[in-house]
Amino acid sequence: MTKAEIINRPVEQVGNDIKKSAWLAVIESLTIIIMGVLFIAWPDYMVRIISYIFGIFFIIKGAFQIINYFVEKGQNDFFNNELLVGVISVLLGVAAIAVGAEIANVFRVVLGIWLVYESLVRINTAIKLSAAGISVWKYILLIGLGILLLGVFVVFNDVTVVIGWMMIIAGIIGIFGDVLFMQQIDNLISKITK
Description:
- By secondary structure, the chain is mainly alpha-helical.
- The protein contains 6 helices and no strands.
- Helix 1 packs across helix 2, helix 2 runs antiparallel to helix 3 and helix 4 runs antiparallel to helix 5.
């Protein structure tokens, strides 16, 4: 194995890891599109389903923490708060199931914040691509800014069908940006290894 092969191999591995991450981002975007379609087709039904999912998740998590508290003899540990956290978690789960419509508002805000986070990741990627001299950075930056605007819109808009459309648009923009990014990974690796 030559010196160049030894040096290039880790960089190529990093490139493969980046491609895997980009494919995961595409899957996330597809998930957002599917959820958006479901929100448009059955807005009330989806609100109930999400509240049940949140509720069941918190009840299971809380029950696990309560059981673990007694199994691990947490009452003898002054810093073990699993019992308290578990009870609060179970109560949150029951509340989520009982008051589904209000949970939809929480979900909307969480989704909006997640879209803002995704946009900031893309903007950061665009800045790094710009520094590396990869010309596609402008498109990634525009896509990131578009997702940022959609995220802010979702946070401050409570119409379920509109949120569904915003999720579809954000998912499509995300996939477009991820595909553009994946196409440039090989160029980036070749620039790094020269």
